[in-house]
Amino acid sequence: MDKFNEERLKVPFGTKCLDAALCVPASVRDVHTAVILTHGAGGDMNFKHLVSLAHSLASGGFICLRFTCKGLNLGYRVKAYCAVWDYLKSLQKFTIKRMFFGGRSMGCRAAVALARQLSDESEDAVQGVICLSFPLHPPGQTNAHRQRSEGLRELPEHMRVLFVSGTEDNMCDRVVFNKVVKEIKAQVEVFWLQGGSHGLTVKGRAEDAVLDEVNSKVTAWISEQGA
């Protein structure tokens, strides 16, 4: 028997619609925690890592809504993310009490930016952010990290943030990243995937085994936040 059910959706966004997929636990009826996920600069919501994580979260008892937004402008991405957040809140079949934003690469930059904006309005709007392969700088350009980490430094103290990054990620130098983490006021946890690339792949390891490791970490972290 499936542990989750998935439904394809169209989320209104201005004059357009965003492709989305809603995953919910199959057997748990009283679900109060939701996670929104989106992809990086390339790909879409069907990127294998996002699908795997969404299914894992739903199997673990959480609502997960992932969506596609092809725009490469960060401001546009944030607006799309906000539209998805509004849509999920409007679904009357759920009583969502805890919300987590997440994304991969550019997608997590958008998640961080929206979480920071909403926290200015309400401390309870978003409980935490999941950053998969945060793109701290372009490959080899570590000096660009100040601009890309600005949103992280502006997150409030009550916000919880989980970073999942590969130790071989050429867009997240570990030394530079560790310095940035010290400047973040939010409550941060970092999970380093040994040998992991920016795509969270590891030479010599099966992709599914790596995905299971990452998914287990993310699901456990959300549970630890009282979800």
TrEMBL record:
Pfam families: Abhydrolase_11. Transmembrane segments: none annotated. InterPro entries: AB_hydrolase_fold, KANL3/Tex30_Abhydrolase, NSL3/Tex30. Residues 33-222 form the KANL3/Tex30 alpha/beta hydrolase-like domain. This is KANL3/Tex30 alpha/beta hydrolase-like domain-containing protein. Gene3D superfamilies: alpha/beta hydrolase.
